[in-house]
Amino acid sequence: MNNNMTPLLIDDTFTFSCSKDVPCFNECCKDLNQFLTPYDILRLKNSLGIPSNLFIERYTSQHTGPESGLPIITLKADYASKLKCPFVTSSGCSVYENRPSSCRMYPLARLVSRSRETGEITEQYMLLKEPHCLGFAHGKNQTVQDQTVREWIESQGISPYNESNDLLMEIISLKNRLMPGQLDIKSRHLFYLALYDIDTFRKHISDKGIADDFNLDSKAFDAVINDDEALLKFAFKWITHTLFHSKQL
């Protein structure tokens, strides 16, 4: 195991603090290869007050997984400034309240697996200690804090991110079982539309009736049309039904 990674249980403690008083402040926002999940994009585009298609065009790059054929969205870093995050400023993160899940979780990493027999999801956590990060040491004007993994998850508002990201994991697992290999172009487009370009997906629901097969009652339909989080949850169900003909989610 990497010497910079320490396994932790949910109630194990670790010592860490990040603030302007830490000499490495903003260093973790450089040299990025930042993957974005559907929920990350939902929160970020709403924070910026722009539709999903504009956010994706302006701030991200899209790739195709070489084995899965699934769309992969990454944050478009500033190549002129050491691959810096486009949202970092000298005073810190400009979208801090809606920062991506990987930023919230740091310095922890969350590993998730699902039992094929029971369907139960198991979480594992790793504490990352990277050379550039000085948040683990006491110093002038700096107080490191002890907390459990559970306390960190609560304090950083990670739970809704994890819940949505677990649904994405479910879909990827389902795809790997039922449709191994690359998705075709049409399936890849539908996957991207429903899970990443969520505002365009909403318009298709309204204008093209693509949710008609689900027989949503008026309350559920209104929630899907007017609430982004309800829309994303529906999008996960729509993908499992449309691409994989499954009702697993």
Please, could you describe this protein's structure?
This protein is an alpha+beta fold and 249 residues long. The protein has two domains: 5-157, no CATH class; 161-244, no CATH class. It has helices spanning 38-48, 52-59, 101-105, 149-155, 159-178, 185-195, 198-208, 218-226, 228-244; strands at 5-8, 13-16, 60-64, 71-75, 88-89, 92-93, 108-114, 121-128, 145-148. The strands form four sheets. A three-stranded antiparallel beta sheet has the order 1-8-7. A hairpin with a 6-residue loop joins strand 3 and strand 4 (71-75). Helix 1 (38-48) crosses helix 2 (52-59), helix 7 crosses helix 9 and helix 8 (218-226) packs across helix 9.
Task: Classify the beta-strand content into a percent band.
Answer: 15-25%
User: What is the averaged pLDDT score?
Assistant: 89
Count, helices:
9
Q: How does the overall form come out from the CA principal axes?
A: globular
Number of DSSP E strands:
9
Spatial gap, N to C terminus: 34 Å
Across the major sheet, the strand order is: 1-8-7
Largest β sheet strand count, sense and barrel closure: 3 strands, antiparallel
The secondary structure category is: alpha+beta
Can you write the helix and strand succession as a string?
EEHHEEEEHEEEHHHHHH
Helix content: 25-40%
